[in-house]
Amino acid sequence: MPLPSPFKIALLSCGLLLSACSASEPQEALPPEVGIVVLKAESAVMTSELPGRIVAVETSEVRPQVDGVIRRMMFEEGAFVRAGQVLYQIEDAPYRAALANAQGRLARAEAAINATRLQAERYRDLVEINAVSRQEADDAEAAAAQARADVTAQRAAVEAAKVNLGFTRVRAPISGQIGRSLFTRGALAQAGQTEPLATIRRTDTVYVDMAQSASEILDIRDAMGTGGLSRSAEGARVTLLLPNGKAYPLEGRLKFSEITADPETGAVTLRATFPNPDGELLPGLYVRTKLIDGVRQQAILAPQQGIFRDERGRAHALVIGKDNKVEQRIVTAGSAIGNRWVITGGLHEGDKLIVEGRQRASLGETVRPKILQLSSKKTTAAEASQASGK
């Protein structure tokens, strides 16, 4: 076998050397990939979640107006009663006797008025012929006037006796659902007692009293004044979340807000009305409410996974700037709408917000952005109701 020529040996050596050199050179690493969303300005329905308490639109404590023993209870506990319906019958024998006595005194006063009137007329004629003295005539006139006044007083006494007799039948002041009776048959009822006989509440419609901080109310008014927030076309609507987590199916309407703030808490009471045809909303029940404040125009909504906070609680975001380099922004995050924050400062339309791969993105370094197709539907008033569970 012939040996290789020196020229071939040299070529083979050069090839091996070049292969070793190319294998030892490191390949250039690609920038890390991150997921981004391009922020857009859109209109958003702004809501406030507030604690609330249900209050009956009318509440009346049934109390006796006269003293006496309760002889009959003429209603069923928990039933619906109508205004004027008799609820209790108090022993009325003493009051019937008092009425008869007053009527007798009135009859006697009416009988006396004729005698005194006739005597005054006779004395008036006799004094002209000096048959009686002027003093006697004046006394007769005074007696007649006193008799007339006594009739008026006795008529008032008869009316008072009739009123007291009527009070022995305790009636419902309002229509509504009556609770349990705190007094039974045979119990002594007294006018002015501290404890009511029963309580009636009208609950076909109820109030929901909510507490909102005065600062939030001022912010909303300022936003409306500057045009950043406009009143929703549907009006100030309110939805409810019951204590068991169930959404109440009917909407309410904001009725009014208190004109003063609580000096201790700085909160202002808002009141909404809700229909309650099935009696599901019980007075005294605590609920969560969602109040539609208005529509914010040109709002920046950032996905919550793109916003993080430092140890001081300040909100930050990472965005892609010039030449695909990572930048950090301090942002102002307002309320949440679904899974997005309303950004009121720090981010603008067109910013490329990093929402995935943030741990691979170092400040000032170049990254490879990948646009993610996250939900970017506009938040409407209907969606706000659905978010509340409706």
Automatic annotation (TrEMBL):
Subcellular location: Cell envelope
GO molecular-function terms, A-Z: transmembrane transporter activity
Alphabetical UniProt keywords: Coiled coil, Signal
SUPFAM superfamilies tied to this protein: HlyD-like secretion proteins
A Pfam family recorded for this sequence: BSH_RND
Signal found in the keyword field: yes
Keyword Signal appears in the UniProt entry: yes
Residue span(s) of domain Multidrug resistance protein MdtA-like alpha-helical hairpin: 99-168
BP GO annotations: response to antibiotic
Multidrug resistance protein MdtA-like barrel-sandwich hybrid domain location: 59-200
Cellular component GO terms, alphabetical: cell envelope; plasma membrane
Major site of localization recorded for this protein: other
Segments forming domain Multidrug resistance protein MdtA-like C-terminal permuted SH3: 298-360
Residues spanning the signal sequence: 1-23
Coiled coil: 99-150
Multidrug resistance protein MdtA-like beta-barrel domain ranges (all copies): 205-291
Similarity comment: family membership: Belongs to the membrane fusion protein (MFP) (TC 8.A.1) family.
Designated name of the protein: Membrane fusion protein, multidrug efflux system
Organism: Sphingopyxis indica
